[in-house]
Amino acid sequence: MNKTNRHPAPSAAASSAAASFAAASFAAAALAALCCLSPLAPAAPATTARGAPKGDEIIKLDAINVTAMREAKRFYETPASVVTLDPGAIKATGGESAYEIVRFADGIVIDSMGPAGQSYGAMFSKTILRGSARGTLVLIDGMPANINGYYNMEDIPVQSIKRVEILKGASSTLYGSEAIGGVINITTRNNPGNTATLSLGANDYQNYSFSLGSDWTIKGAEGGVSLTGIYQNLGEITRMNSAASNGQALGYGGGIKRLGRVDLRQGRWHLSYQHSENQYDFQQYENAYANDWTRITQISSYDDAKDYARLSGRGANWSANFYYNHQKRDYQTHRNLLATPNKSADIGYNALSFGGDLQYTWKPAWADFLFGLTLYRESYEQWSKLNGAVTADVGRNDYSLFARASKTLLDDWTLSLSLRESYNTGDGSDAFTPQIQLLKKFPRRLSAYANAGRIFNLPTLKQLYDTTTSQVYTNNPDLAPEKGWNYETGVKWEGENTLLGLALFHMDLDHITYKQVGSPSISKPFTVPFKNTGIELTATQRLGQNFKIEAGASYSTPKDRTLDNSNNLSAWRPLYGKIQANLRVRYETAACFASFNISYLGKRPYYEAVRSARPDLIPTTLKVGANLGKHRNVQAALVLDNVFNRRDITSHGDVTSAPRNDYFCLPRNLKATVSVSF
Asked: Is the pLDDT of residue 261 over 90?
């Protein structure tokens, strides 16, 4: 039976009941097993008069997160796997955007098509959590930043980032569509201060930025304003990918980014607006086989503009968030430049999403409750300037109600039940996504948890409705949503200088993938079964006042079903990589700082007859610097990327014929940065 389109379940009620029973059984069994750890718990420390461990008031590590439960919780009180990047960790990455900041974080697989996370054509640079290519929801200050399925993390500047929380595992119940593999929540700075920064690097890389800010107090309420501006030149890069079957390969022709951001705060409210403009092109060279990078046969040029607006308010037990995301792209392709040039594509599109959510918490003595309402509108319009045809002009609305109830039992057990009901006007589909979480606390901030939840993700409007005649992608109007279940159990320990976490997870869902169809071949989306089972270990250790080590390791088995020539389900195929490890070491004093970041991705699948696996992916970054001047207000730093000068393959897609056409990381490159605070 063809399971790629919407297919009926045996019975909605029976299926829901069976899934709920399975989730509850899994949670109960996992917690029962984890409770056996109780005799191994460290002896309880001395306590204060109120019974809290001494030192609780002084948190030496960044152990608070707000993403997993939509409110502030300590690390060991959170029934989910969470990684937090504090200002020190952000600085240590040497990155200049959110994309570059998270690439060394635990459990993240990067799929890059260009320098600094720049996307190429209809593809986009991915930040993949737990093997789900479309399952990462990016939030800016708790509000969605995804536009038509694109993450756009390369457009979030490091100057505006205060903190990053990475929630691994399904989060559809509290955050809705797109949160299948997890959530990356980027918290921005209220005031980045008064700074001016200059960065220069290889390939004519240049980055000029500034920030200005001022605080005030009006009638006892604090407020302020800040302004951030960036001009970035990414330079030109050849040998960006291997030769295609016609002997041609790509190079990055060059790119310019301009970005401006303004923040206004007063009392409980925060308003921000950001505008970015990207102009860049990719060049195709004729004789890559012969190592001839002088003859350009094709140029694809892009003008890309994005706008993000945020308005948020916070009270003692309420929050209100409103957002606006807009992307406008125009791109052209000029082919056959060495003979008779012709323009083969001149396409533009507008992608828009806006909405908001209201949240209220109620905490009587006997339980905790959270209630919320989410509304959003998204639209997509695409047209061809060559023939004047409009290939897509569609939109849809989504309405969701969600709630969470938490109850503490016997002082050290906490049970949380979350529910979300969503209705979508695009095709009338609705989704009920429950989640149950159970947490057991032991002495000395040791805990064990289990959770099970249903996950749901809508296809993008482009995947459903865009009828562009293209050599790359086509649509599928019968494309079914991504949906299924996620199960997770784990153990956590929070010491004064240590954070340890161990998680086991299993994902079983239908997800969207692409298959080559027709002649010439074109990528068409289909919904197929997906599974991933894995184990993750994370650790953070502070050594004295100056050293901090963050490490992680995981083994997982992401895979999905392939389709035969009749689009019926066929064999299972592995995805991405099975083994992953990360290490981040940083040292900092008032006078100097240094950091080293390394990530490893192994056991990568590869579908070419001449080999069975892709080479391991091992990105690295070394950063050293000093704080200078009488008031330490001048910071100078050197960032060395790709320390071992590896030619790593950064793409993960299928390759079924030789020669392969892979995308490569940049060669070893050095960047110098000087920043002045005033």
From this structure: yes
- Would you state the pLDDT for residue 470? 61
Comparing CA positions, the residue from 399, 385, 453 lying closest to residue 24 is 453
Cis check: omega of the bond before 520, within 30 degrees of 0 = yes
**Token pair 């910071």: residue:** 635
Confidence of residue 123 (pLDDT cuts 50, 70, 90): low
Q: 55 by DSSP, 3-state: which?
A: coil
pLDDT surpassing 70 at residue 533: yes
Q: Which residues contact 502 (CB under 8 A, 6 or more apart)?
A: 490, 491, 492, 535, 536, 537
266 is written with which tokens? 């007063």
| 263-298 burial: b if 16+ Cβ within 10 Å, else e | bebeeeebbbebbbebebbbbbbbebeeeeeeebbb
pLDDT in tens, 592-649: 999 999 999 999 987 554 455 678 999 999 999 999 988 899 999 999 999 999 999 8
Relative to beta strand 182-188, strand 136-140 is parallel
Count Cβ atoms within 10 A of the Cβ of residue 579 and give its class: 0-12 exposed, 13-18 middle, 19 or more buried.
Answer: middle
Whole-angstrom CA distances from 255 to 129, 177, 205, 236 are 28, 32, 10, 8
pLDDT for position 428: 65
DSSP H helices, 142-301, are: 172-175
pLDDT digits (tens, 9 = 90+) for 428-475: 678 999 999 999 999 999 999 999 999 999 999 989 988 876 667 788
Per DSSP, helices labelled H in 134-205 are 172-175
8 A C-beta contact, residue 271 and residue 264: yes
3-state secondary structure of 18: helix
Contact 596, 620 (CB under 8 A): yes
Q: Which residues contact 246 (CB under 8 A, 6 or more apart)?
A: none
CA distances from 491 to 225, 280, 446, 448, 553 (A): 42, 46, 8, 4, 15
HSE value, Cβ hemisphere, 13 Å, CA-based, for 162: 10
- Which of 123-137, 180-194, 241-255 has the highest mean predicted lDDT (pLDDT)? 180-194
> Is the CB of residue 375 less than 8 Å from the CB of residue 409?
no
Burial annotation 647-665 (CB, 10 A radius, 16+ → b, else e) = ebbbbbeebeeeebbbbbb
Query: Which strand (E) or helix (H) includes residue 379?
Result: strand 368-384
Confidence of residue 114 (pLDDT cuts 50, 70, 90): confident
**Average pLDDT, rounded, for the chain:** 85
Look at the block and give the residue holding tokens 């001047």: 629
pLDDT of residue 3: 39
* Residue owning tokens 């789900």: 132
**Contact of 343 with 337, CB cutoff 8 Å:** no
Range of lowest pLDDT (246-260, 302-316, 355-369, 475-489): 246-260
Alpha-carbon gap, residue 199 to 678, rounded angstroms: 18
Helix (H) or strand (E) holding 111: strand 108-111
C-alpha–C-alpha distance, residues 513 and 342, integer Å: 32
pLDDT of residue 660: 60
Per-residue pLDDT, 611:
53
Check: CB of residue 210 under 8 Å from CB of residue 229: yes
Got the DSSP string for 269-299? EEEEEEEEEEEEEEEEEEETTTTEEEEEEEE
